[in-house]
Amino acid sequence: MEEQIIDRLREIIMPYAKDQNALNCLSRNSDFINDLKINSANLVDIILDVEEAFNIEIDNEAMEQMLSVGAAVDIINRKLASQ
To answer: Is residue 78 a contact partner of residue 56, using CB atoms and an 8 Å limit?
Structure first.
């Protein structure tokens, strides 16, 4: 399940990532801002895309925590489990 979520995140992140090498090596440890060079405005777009792709709602508290792929996976899993 986690690999599927990371694969889906890779598709969502692709248009925004400035570092394609980091995108190719995407893992739980990948940081959206430092590794993938995604700016904060695009991070909001990614969160909106994640909400749509997984049919979940990400609240402000979760948004603030969603700075890495691992955090995103954990938040997505929590939201999916509570549906």
So the answer is: no
Residue 68's DSSP bridge partners are: 31
pLDDT tens string 58-76 = 999 999 999 999 999 999 9
- Residue written as token pair 């991070």: 43
CA distance 16 to 55: 21
Q: Is 55 left (phi over 0), alpha (psi -120 to 50) or beta?
A: left
Residue pair 51/57 in contact by the 8 Å Cβ criterion: yes
What is the average pLDDT score of the chain?
95
What is the rounded CA–CA span in Å between residue 28 and residue 22?
12
Q: Structure pTM?
A: 0.92
